[in-house]
């Protein structure tokens, strides 16, 4: 009788672990890590012309992101945030600001969506054919100065099909990030989300 009970308990434990594993696979939307290239378009406040910037984005759950383009490198880990701007004139010093991390809205969105396509206390999820929209509540929108985050897909609403992110600020102004060469579950080096200042850099912390 005792051996049978132990056998049953082992089966129950195995099923529980299996269901837990399946549940995490079903509910996870954003992978643990990913990297991608992006092209960002926005309208210049000065010239009113549409500008285009190409860069790279790398993410690791939880709380790590790196966004880099020719004019900016932003590295965020759970402890520190590094914001580096290279010199606009050759020979001039670059500038690095280091401060205690307050989560970037991209990081919070990706971290939350890693747990599934469901709303949180900060936003609701609106799912449409070919797109998802995270609509922030009034209090949180005011805090981060963002109204919503829209993800658009080429085909099924799966992260691997992500081809565009639109972040909408509290005034309705949009920044479009066109996504390409998206790779899920990439292996990242230990120092990916740290930053070493180049020579001739003015550091503020």
Describe the structure.
This protein is an alpha+beta fold and 205 residues long. It has one domain: Lipoprotein localisation LolA/LolB/LppX (outer membrane lipoprotein receptor (LolB), chain A, Clam). It has three helices and twelve strands. It has helices at residues 2-27, 105-113, 138-144, and strands at residues 33-43, 50-60, 64-69, 72-76, 80-85, 94-100, 123-128, 131-136, 146-153, 162-169, 174-184, 201-204. Strands 7-8-9-10-11-1-2-3-4-5-6-12 form a twelve-stranded mixed sheet. It is globular and about 50 Å long. Residues 1-26 have low confidence and may be disordered.
Précis, in short:
By secondary structure, this protein is α+β, with helices and mostly antiparallel strands. It has three helices and twelve strands.
